[in-house]
Amino acid sequence: MLIHAETLDDALLALYPKLLDVTSKVVSSRGDNVELVGVLIEIEQPRARLSRSETRGRLFSSLGELLWYLTGKNELQFIKPYIDRYQDESEDGLTVYGGYGPRLFAQRGNNQINNVLDLLRQRPSRRAMIQIFNAEDIAELHQEIPCTATLQFLLRDDGLHLIVSMRSNDAYLGLPHDVFCFTMLQEICARSLNCEMGTYRHFVGSMHLYDEHRTHAKELISEGFQARKRMPEMPIGDPWPSIMVVLDGEQRARQQEKFDAGNLGVDAYWADIVRLLQVFFQSNVDTMRALRENMSFKGYRPYITALIDRRRDGE
């Protein structure tokens, strides 16, 4: 099945009705679900990676997961504030076996991101692949293993394309997070190569919707068309020094340290990312509002407002 869409929301609005129409059930360890086998989603505007839906617009957990990858580690304590369910996937209470960070940046001693960038700086090779799923992942029993198999980067005249292949994907919880994280990684690599972004393609062997999320999927469909608002373009130039500043800012925000993200010496794009992290770890509503007003990109404001409302409601 092919779904061609301009934005993430367009893809969700095309996918969910097809899943809801499936009648045969699949029984799995995580609950009953319906599935579509062999789904390819093409997104033309990968910067439109944030759902504008009231039910799926969870920017903060997506951002937290991306930064978790970029730490190069799989520590539970980092991701738990953003996505608490990872606690159920930890086998030792300290790490998450299937965490992508070590697999991206230290796979058997290989920094796969650097290897791909080095290769593509030499030539537009079809070998620019990153392996996430490993043979040993099913050689022994684990609480959870990666859903993602590979990432293939294709450098062509019109930009850097990314093809992600997944063995399995939760259409409601997992898919929006994966599209956010991988298109951000695509843009980071494109900036590292001084080129534009191409199309994002997301192939899934088993695209499934759990019974517990059927009502939520129907709610998204009922909301209908969403504004096609893209995230701003990542600044031109090497993004990695700024990413290091953001990761440091995340730790400071986690400790609720008071500081002005505008004074960190990074572009407004990255300063906004740090402000989002400050908002997430902030408990004072007035401070959250002040940070919201300081955002350079006003498109983040609805997500901050929604977080303030959820905090008020005790979520």
UniProtKB/TrEMBL annotation:
CDD domains assigned to the protein according to its UniProt record, in alphabetical order: TS_Pyrimidine_HMase (cd00351)
Keywords: Methyltransferase, Transferase
The keyword Cytoplasm appears for this protein: no
Source domain of life: Bacteria
Claim: Transferase is one of the keywords in the record: yes
First and last residue of the signal peptide: none
UniProt cross-references to InterPro entries, sorted A to Z: Thymidate_synth/dCMP_Mease, Thymidate_synth/dCMP_Mease_dom, Thymidate_synth/dCMP_Mease_sf
Record GO biological process: dTMP biosynthetic process; methylation
Domain Thymidylate synthase/dCMP hydroxymethylase: 61-236
One GO MF term attached to the UniProt entry: thymidylate synthase activity
GO cellular component term of the entry, any: cytosol
Entries under PANTHER family matching the protein: THYMIDYLATE SYNTHASE (PTHR11548:SF9), THYMIDYLATE SYNTHASE 1 (PTHR11548)
Name of the featured protein: Thymidylate synthase/dCMP hydroxymethylase domain-containing protein
Organism: Methyloceanibacter methanicus
Lineage, uppermost ranks: Bacteria, Pseudomonadati, Pseudomonadota, Alphaproteobacteria, Hyphomicrobiales
